Amino acid sequence: MASFSIKNVKYNAYLLTKKSTIEITDRTYLISFQEDLEFSPGQFCMVNVDGAGLTRKPFTLGRIEGTVAISVKIAGKGSEYIVKTSERLNVLAPLGNAFVPENRNGAVVVAPSCLAEGLHLSEHFKIPLFVASKSALSREITSQFELNTVVGNDGYLRLLEELNNSRFDWIFVSGSRIMEELAVRNMPNKLVYVSLNEYMACGIGACKGCAVETMNGIKHACTDGPVFRGDEIWARH
Amino acid sequence: MASFSIKNVKYNAYLLTKKSTIEITDRTYLISFQEDLEFSPGQFCMVNVDGAGLTRKPFTLGRIEGTVAISVKIAGKGSEYIVKTSERLNVLAPLGNAFVPENRNGAVVVAPSCLAEGLHLSEHFKIPLFVASKSALSREITSQFELNTVVGNDGYLRLLEELNNSRFDWIFVSGSRIMEELAVRNMPNKLVYVSLNEYMACGIGACKGCAVETMNGIKHACTDGPVFRGDEIWARH
Amino acid sequence: MGKALNLRTPIVIASGPGGFGEYLNVSSVDWSYVGAYTLKTVTLNPKSGNKPPRMYASKEFLINRIGLENPGFDGLRKMVEDGTIDKLASIVPLILSLGGDSFDEYVEITKLCRPFLDKFIAVEYNFSCPNVHHGGLSIMVDREEWRRLLKAIRTETDAFIIAKLGIESGFVEEMARIVSSEGWDGVTVINTIRGLMVNSEGQTVLGGLSGPALYPIALRAVYEVRKALPDIYIIASGGVYAPEQVREMLRFGANAVSVGSALFHDESVLNEMGKEFSR
Amino acid sequence: MGKALNLRTPIVIASGPGGFGEYLNVSSVDWSYVGAYTLKTVTLNPKSGNKPPRMYASKEFLINRIGLENPGFDGLRKMVEDGTIDKLASIVPLILSLGGDSFDEYVEITKLCRPFLDKFIAVEYNFSCPNVHHGGLSIMVDREEWRRLLKAIRTETDAFIIAKLGIESGFVEEMARIVSSEGWDGVTVINTIRGLMVNSEGQTVLGGLSGPALYPIALRAVYEVRKALPDIYIIASGGVYAPEQVREMLRFGANAVSVGSALFHDESVLNEMGKEFSR
Ligand SMILES: Cc1cc2nc3c(=O)[nH]c(=O)nc-3n(C[C@H](O)[C@H](O)[C@H](O)COP(=O)(O)OP(=O)(O)OC[C@H]3O[C@@H](n4cnc5c(N)ncnc54)[C@H](O)[C@@H]3O)c2cc1C
Ligand SMILES: Cc1cc2nc3c(=O)[nH]c(=O)nc-3n(C[C@H](O)[C@H](O)[C@H](O)COP(=O)(O)OP(=O)(O)OC[C@H]3O[C@@H](n4cnc5c(N)ncnc54)[C@H](O)[C@@H]3O)c2cc1C
Ligand SMILES: Cc1cc2nc3c(=O)[nH]c(=O)nc-3n(C[C@H](O)[C@H](O)[C@H](O)COP(=O)(O)O)c2cc1C
Ligand SMILES: Cc1cc2nc3c(=O)[nH]c(=O)nc-3n(C[C@H](O)[C@H](O)[C@H](O)COP(=O)(O)O)c2cc1C
Ligand code: FES
Ligand code: FES
Fold it and tell me: Which of B88, C85, C165, D78 would be B15's cystine partner, CB 3.0–4.6 Å?
């Protein structure tokens, strides 16, 4: 059973002004902001999408050379609003737990939709970053960042195999559920961390909507996560 | 009680291509179409507004020098769609009864939102047309048509007084409910016809939504009207 | 297995929005794609309906308070005698919808209609009109009285009889259980849900909600009734506007799917819906 | 006149969406604008809730099948003993929400809570959760059993007790009449309505619908209950997202207005709603 103690934290609503929006790859964008806010690697925010959605929408936070950023894949009306609007974004943050690895001998693998988080972790922990993308990244992105990129499903599976046989103690994976499950199943030698994408309404532990079945019972992605040990979510066979 | 006999008519769905859209006055437009369709003065159509409304929306039909036209006041999302779209309009027509006056000694008074109908009646019956508008008509309209226009509430009341003392046997009024009620009450000497704007869902007598309380019981604006004798709707005191 | 209607397609026109066949005058519909046309509810005595305004719409809802305006049994009989019903039925199979203001009226109109019930493939009893003061919804407040009524009607006719149920008189699957246990052939779920909107003139419109927002509620009702009663004939009603929704309703247990308010948007959607089922 | 709650503003946080006070951690809300905070329903035994997925949303609806995840009476007692409840109550008056899986559980938890009920300004009994297999909705199928339960609870406590009613167990005004006749102080109308949606992964989500589309239905329920019972205390719940809707609910008979799913959109709407009532 999940615990019901109320955390002694403050969640703030920020109005964030877009600084730049650049295409990462097909329908996926990196948005940076003018304002600063305090958060730790692995945490996320809930973004109000005005008339484009009934709930705020969760996005992992990133920091790139000091600037706050999120990456957004257009999955529906809400994410489309976030990418297209020129209004300031109303954002509740920081949410969830900081990711605190046991050591710095790790690596990060992200989908383009989680590039901001990936860049942040890589910079913060000084660890390598791999981007697994369905299609090639845009020129703007590759010219701005030095990225190890694999394209397509086969490329991703080969990357997992390599990482499974690598020197790293742990691998942090953030992307789609399928991508994360594949990582856990295909890297049996490694401690794999995953950042879950459960459906969230509140992001602060109130609604109990973001339940995840773990080996240790029901947990909540927003307050117990969003980062979990992969073997807590998927059994390895 | 309204009758329940089913009319022996065919209602057709037409796709109408816009030919021109010109502003009549503030938020009100005259839209003409490339295609022709058969109808009589006083009849209306129901216009599909795609995602901008759950039901088709009723508009009186007009014909100006042979060209089919409607006039549209932007009252909400549906009418806004009609004015702004560049798609062809899906239109059910012709609906309601033709207006057949007892003689040609009449006059027509319309709000700008019913200008197409007004021009049609005026041309068809060779009778004078008066336009009662809240604000001045656009240059495009006044240069194209020779119109007798009164602006503002006072102007309208003076027009009604004049018409009440005029040589005409009947006056046809089409505009808002308030405008029509004022006409009936302020022209006690005349036979006044009004074209009612009841809420309509089907336009063909099926839904029974467009009920009107008349001196002769409940009638339906779509199949018994849309034109009624004013004294059937409002008592004169 | 319960009795079935064997419609040519599972698309049915809902009682009310389709009036007494007026949509047959609309040339854009190919009626071979429509399985049945339900007429507007007829009551023993004619009703002139509620005072205007009778309708209003938001983005997702249409609200109506027609108040069962209908010509009564005499009007219906006239439509039978003057050949109107035969003419309509020659184009599309008809379902008769009956309502009443009391126990006796429901039974009485059933008896009166018996001579010509063979012109209809089924009779739907409207137990759920939210817009009349007696009858409709209120007949169901007393559960035992309602059960007696179901029994009485079943005794009066061998026709394929369907009870139209809303979701407000009790859990719809419980209501359907009662209907089935009294030997009825089917249920139509759901009807409009009672709502209140203030229109742009500031008038209070108390009526029944129909339209897109009903869809997930109606889909759930179909699911629950099918779970409770594997054999009953189910007509789904509520917010069906697109072919995918017809398929989804069928997948979750409906035998036929009724189209109401969507007619007001574009009746030619019937063609798209019916096409894939047409043989 | 019935008893009233005398809230500082008529804005109430709905049971469930507000969890166990988590929104008090959100800095953008000025809690002096909020009249009361209803905690999520607590049942005798802890519940871990339903399996995921538990939520989905369309444009107008949110669907949830949380399944009353809650820490049970023991968890609640712990929150009382460790001072959490006092701390929350020092910021905003609290309403306790209780539920059960059976007649006995409702009565039992009432008895157990008695020692600390004075920390709450009222107790709301959830008779309408659509997402649990026993209790919630199903307790109301047997009308007589439910009436006995209302009587039993009333006997156990002098607290201000409120029954939360959905629209599916019977006409809401009839249900409210029963509640009132058993000496209860108020009703909350409505709860979520049962719905079914298929999410983007093709999973069937059977849950309760909340959000904007509920509003005209909830407004009508308030109107009907007020018409039937001029004196009962009414908390309106369903689809309230804007200050105008608060005003409209009050105008049609509500004493207080509860805000649920709107918190997920932007909890700072509470400030806008409460401002005009603040003294
Ligand atoms: C902790 C967390 C962090 C995330 N970080 C990122 C990120 O950095 N970049 C990114 O592109 N995406 C991220 N996502 C996913 C992102 O939240 C969804 O893509 C977004 O909410 C879609 O909203 P929409 O209105 O565009 O889509 P909709 O049209 O509403 O739905 C499309 C799909 O998006 C998902 N989705 C929709 N609403 C939610 C919601 N409230 N909560 C969770 N998923 C939802 C569902 O799978 C749904 O089927 C994250 C999700 C979580 C839970
Ligand atoms: C027979 C008839 C002929 C009409 N002819 C004209 C015309 O020539 N020119 C013109 O500008 N307007 C005409 N109207 C009014 C026109 O139909 C409405 O202004 C239009 O439907 C508004 O739709 P909306 O989506 O823009 O407004 P909404 O935002 O939906 O509503 C705004 C207001 O428009 C009216 N309205 C909305 N829907 C309907 C409906 N289905 N039926 C009737 N009224 C509705 C209501 O008063 C409503 O409060 C006519 C109405 C009728 C009944
Ligand atoms: C204008 C209108 C009139 C209606 N009249 C009746 C009726 O007479 N009898 C009946 O059983 N249902 C009636 N209904 C309910 C519909 O048959 C249908 O069950 C309901 O509208 C939900 O379906 P929809 O969303 O497809 O419209 C009416 C609905 C509308 C909108
Ligand atoms: C995620 C969620 C959880 C809920 N949990 C409860 C609950 O535990 N007890 C209860 O009485 N109502 C519960 N409800 C119902 C709400 O209190 C409210 O009545 C309903 O959501 C309608 O209001 P809204 O449209 O403002 O959300 C819940 C609703 C949601 C969305
Ligand atoms: S998103 Fe509400 S509890 Fe996690
Ligand atoms: S608009 Fe449907 S009957 Fe007149």
Answer: B88
